[in-house]
Design brief:
By secondary structure, this protein is α+β, with helices and mostly antiparallel strands. Helix content is about 25%, strand content about 25%. A hairpin with an 8-residue loop joins strand 15 and strand 16. Helix 5 packs across helix 6. The protein is elongated and about 85 Å long.
């Protein structure tokens, strides 16, 4: 739960930041009457003119012109398998450098952009570039880093304006590559952008269509920034018209005053919401995220809030060569997903792996006429809190026996832990069906989604343990003469990734006794109708 005081402090801090921005001399000040002369458009040579009129004023507390290219010092380092460590430095307006770069026309071609307060030298960009270049079949790949560190500094409103020009410059670079290599289209181009970099990718895609009648093959938005982009028209933010395929990973999508930095709106062809899309396991929260604001408020706030926001690019990098399928399923909401309402892949609940390999699955659906490219698919999944993040997901249905012995025993309070075992006797880590103690009574049936590290094969049996603690204030937990136990009739274990289902039961219908591991197998189950 988020602390209300924490939220108030966060909101107050954001207001201070906005106030700081509004004090700048470059901020748009709208005329008090129609006779007052105000500059609403500024031009930058070959990159064209940029307006500060509507819709660039919508839902924004301030409005800037982009800084000139020479101020932002924009570079485009290009990496291939031949030069992973020392890139060829390209520039948007220097076509001859591209001609001399010895790029392989077979591709594929990737562009990676950082966000606010960052630069192209960040370790996550190098990790992602290495993973892309190392991928089987990518011997001819080129990775371009969009390094706009000179324009990504505070105030935030200025960085927001700068990405409009940087996106246009990236479009010119892509067009030069297209013409120099004699390519027929941009289907082999994939722009990957984090935070503000995601919207920068959208501007690049839009400019390519408007200026050169070319359309990017794909844009991946990694937790696209929310401030200044929420509830704006599609021209202002990344949307699915900016490329032939747009996929989004939301990892910090919640209100800004609660510490959210990512947009919550579904804006792509496919939007992934891992763990609900707002907070991620392994990212610790604080009761007072802005308790000590020192010289650089921006740096401190972003550092505190960064874990959830950054997890999107960590997921994507891992998805390039994942340890398991990284599967996500279409569902009405994360709550419905957790309740196992969408635990199988079918015509109403499409399954698409999150991240790099999603386009291949989406294309199959598209070719089969199963998806409308003008609409959105929202998908949900669960991950781990540490690397590797990929998990295998199961819908586990628990039935408490209604037998005479179970009724005589009565209800009990505790938690149920499950370990899954595959055909090679490999075991998963134990997983609790509920985070807190639960009241179980004879006849109860519940289904939960759980995620565990995969063993490589679906389970064939399970070890179940009853976690029980006596509570002096709860008579239901008092067991004076014998150990606490629970009569489990069966567990149904359905795999999302393996598309398998088994039912396991305790031997001879015996109860699961507190703190004693009980083996459950399909052969122990009675034949059921």
């Amino acid at each position: 739960m988020y602390n209300r005081t924490s939220a108030t402090l966060m909101l107050q801090t954001i207001m201070v930041l906005m106030d700081k921005q509004n004090s700048s001399m470059d901020v748009t000040r709208f005329p008090t009457n129609f006779n007052e002369d105000v500059e609403l458009e500024r031009c930058y040579g070959m990159y064209g003119c940029f307006s500060k009129a509507y819709p660039w004023t919508e839902n924004r507390p301030d409005n800037y012109f982009p800084e000139p290219p020479e101020v932002m010092h924009i570079k485009f380092p290009a990496f291939t398998r031949r030069n992973r460590k020392i890139p060829v430095i390209l520039e948007a307006d220097k076509k001859e450098k591209i001609e001399n770069a010895n790029l392989d026309p077979r591709g594929p071609f990737y562009l990676i952009s950082h966000g606010f307060l960052e630069g192209g030298d960040k370790q996550w960009i190098q990790n992602m570039a290495d993973a892309l270049l190392s991928l089987e079949g990518n011997e001819a790949a080129t990775v371009f880093v969009v390094d706009w560190r000179g324009g990504s500094q505070p105030p935030y409103g200025q960085a927001v304006a700068n990405i409009r020009l940087v996106g246009d410059m990236a479009a010119h670079l892509v067009h030069h590559v297209y013409t120099v290599l004699g390519l027929s289209d941009l289907d082999n181009f994939h722009f990957i952008g984090h935070s503000l970099g995601a919207h920068l990718a959208g501007y690049c895609g839009h400019a390519l269509q408007k200026k050169f009648n070319l359309k990017l093959g794909r844009i991946t938005g990694l937790d696209p920034a929310a401030p200044y982009f929420t509830k704006t028209v599609t021209l202002v933010r990344l949307d699915r018209s900016d490329a032939k395929y747009v996929d989004i990973i939301h990892s910090n999508a919640m209100p800004l005053y609660f510490g959210g930095l990512g947009i919550s709106e579904p804006i792509g062809h496919v939007d992934f919401f891992p763990n609900g899309g707002s907070t991620q396991p392994g990212c610790k929260s604080s009761n007072n995220p802005v308790a000590a604001i020192a010289d650089d408020m921006y740096q401190r706030i972003v550092k505190h809030l960064g874990c959830n926001h950054e997890r999107s690019y960590e997921y994507f990098t891992e998805s390039i060569a994942p340890s398991c399928p990284f599967m996500a399923v279409q569902c009405e909401s994360y709550e419905a997903f957790l309740a196992s309402n969408c635990s199988s892949c079918d015509s109403k609940h499409f399954c698409i792996p999150m991240g790099y390999h999603s386009y291949r699955f989406y294309k199959r659906l598209q070719m089969g006429g199963l998806v409308d490219t003008n609409s959105n698919i929202a998908l949900y999944s669960m991950t781990g809190g540490s690397k590797p993040y990929c998990r295998v997901q199961y819908a586990i249905t628990l039935k408490i026996s209604n037998s005479t012995a179970s009724v005589a025993h009565g209800p009990d309070v505790g938690r149920i832990s499950v370990i899954l075992i595959d055909r090679n006797t490999n075991r998963t880590e134990h997983k609790l069906l509920d985070d807190e103690d639960k009241y179980y009574k004879p006849g109860d049936v519940e289904t939960r989604m759980v995620a565990v590290q995969g063993t490589g094969f679906p389970p064939i049996s399970a070890i179940v343990e009853w976690k029980y603690e006596t509570n002096l204030f709860n008579p239901v937990t008092w067991r004076l003469l014998k150990s606490s136990s629970i009569f489990i009739e069966y567990l149904k274990i359905a795999s999302l990734e393996y598309n398998t289902e088994i039912t396991v039961c305790p031997k001879l219908h015996k109860p699961v006794v507190a703190n004693l591991k009980t083996m459950m197998m399909p052969k122990y189950c009675k034949i059921r109708k």
